[in-house]
Design brief:
With 142 residues, the chain is mainly beta. The chain contains 1 helix and 12 strands; from the N terminus they run αββββββββββββ. It has 2 domains: 54 residues, no CATH class; 75 residues, OB fold (Dihydrolipoamide Acetyltransferase, E2P), CATH 2.40.50.100. Strand 3 and strand 4 form a beta hairpin. The radius of gyration is 18 Å and the shape is globular.
Length: 142
Amino acid sequence: MDSERIKGLIDLLAESDLLELSLTEGDSTLRLFKQAGKVVATESLADVSPTPVVVAAPAPASSAATIEVKASLYGVLHLTPAAGEAAFVAVGDQVEAGQTLAVLEAMKMFHPVKAKAAGKITAILARSGAEVEAGQALFRLG
């Protein structure tokens, strides 16, 4: 596994709500997990013992000032109103309570994902076209 791919996986885990991620390719296994504000990586090869690598994760924002907007149901996330159009919101945008941030497609029905409170978009936690689970964090407002 190349170092750029490993760094990308570490960044993805640090920004997500996941606590652990494991990936196996051939004889290599990479296991990432969060531990007290850090992302810890272990990589093992067939004849090599695991070597832990500790990478500092971004410091979590105060939970009082951070609001997560979560998926209300399982579906496909759409960050734009239609193909080729601009996204509903981008990181850094100021949003109002009730503003549509995205839509979830479930059984050919489109359900708006709305901001629960006013704030600034600090993170978009899922990509457009991704299948998301009910309760999965989609946006972070600060």
